[in-house]
Amino acid sequence: MGESTAIPLAEAKPGQFFRIHRLSLDGTMRRRLLDLGFIPGAEVKVLQKSPLGDPMAFLVANTTIALRKEESAQIYGEIIGERGDHHG
Amino acid sequence: MADYRIALAGNPNTGKSTLFNALTGLRQHTGNWPGKTVIHAEGEYDFDGDTYTVIDLPGTYSLYSNSADEEVARDYIIFEKPDVTVVVLDATALERNMNLALQVLEMTGKVILCLNLMDEAERKGIRVDVDALAAKLGVPVVPTTARDGVGLKDLQKTIQRMVRGEIITRPLQVRYNEEIEKNVAAMEPSIRSIYGEKLPARWVALRLLDGDDSLLKALKERWLERKEVPVHGRGA
Ligand SMILES: Nc1nc2c(ncn2[C@@H]2O[C@H](COP(=O)(O)OP(=O)(O)OP(=O)(O)O)[C@@H](O)[C@H]2O)c(=O)[nH]1
Ligand SMILES: [Mg+2]
């Protein structure tokens, strides 16, 4: 799937699996996301949204991590499946 | 009869405090790190007549995102130079845990990897080739289930052998792209001339190339302004 079809992780729905293409931020915020496991190529499962949609919880590299929307909106990639599909 | 310092580092929730408690029992004291609102927990145990002081570092995914927790852990490992740094790993999430482990291996070779939560890994059908991991990373790997006290004797024995200089490590050094390696090579001699053997030159060069302002600040505080390095060991 090409770059043009990439969507922000923030728009993925609970139960969906998402593959990261790129992070569109720099500096300390980028470093932090990489350290948390949000690496290009990584597969992320959306676990849940809090009532106001922020923060969101994700399963990444076998650990649950919550991100604020300002962060998950900067992570671009594609939906690769839904709950019930087999992954990993 | 000697006194050694052992630091416990690791990702959050990997069982560092459980291990710390199992090792030190009631011989603990807690407070804050100097100038930080980060909990400092220190305890001790005896093994074969020697005393080991254990420092339970804050759990972090990295040492470079510049949170107070990460600065505490980084500064302890790089400036206070514990006799051994034990990196506690979650055996069920090794890929994630390698980030911090590889960072520590760039800082020091006096590292033991404690592969914890082995019971959980087994339950999930995850098998880890401990010998292959140790060979690849160049440091000892000790499997444990800290919650049940499994593997602690092995860990203590391995720590003892390391402080006695009986273990030769070859910590895996990540190779970066040509441009980075060229710059590192260019910087290393001047870093070495400033810090000698006090700091690992390759690591400092990599941090400077990464624009690590937090480390620059810590270096200035510790050396350029001749500020005393906080005395480790027990409080008054
Ligand atoms: N099943 C199992 N659980 C463990 C083991 N070691 C620790 N735990 C549990 O894992 C949880 C986290 O343990 P802690 O010791 O608090 O982890 P920590 O690394 O100190 O966590 P932070 O201080 O937040 O970084 C606790 O519920 C422990 O009981 C183990 O070997 N097996
Ligand atoms: Mg703890």
TrEMBL record, chain A:
The keyword Iron applies. The keyword DNA damage does not apply. Residues 7-79 form the Ferrous iron transporter FeoA-like domain. One of its GO terms (molecular function) is transition metal ion binding. Pfam families: FeoA (PF04023). Keywords: Iron. InterPro entries: Fe-transptr_FeoA-like, FeoA, FeoA_core_dom, Transcriptional_repressor_C. This is Iron transporter FeoA. It comes from Marinithermofilum abyssi. The gene is feoA.
TrEMBL record, chain B:
It holds the Pfam family FeoB_Cyto. PROSITE patterns: G_FEOB (PS51711). It comes from the Bacteria. InterPro entries: FeoB_Cyto, FeoB_GTPase, G_FEOB_dom, GTP-bd, P-loop_NTPase. SUPFAM superfamilies: P-loop containing nucleoside triphosphate hydrolases. GO terms for molecular function: ferrous iron transmembrane transporter activity; GTP binding. GO terms for cellular component: plasma membrane. Residues 3-165 form the FeoB-type G domain. This is Iron transporter FeoB. It comes from Marinithermofilum abyssi. The lineage of its organism: Bacteria, Bacillati, Bacillota, Bacilli, Bacillales. The gene is feoB.
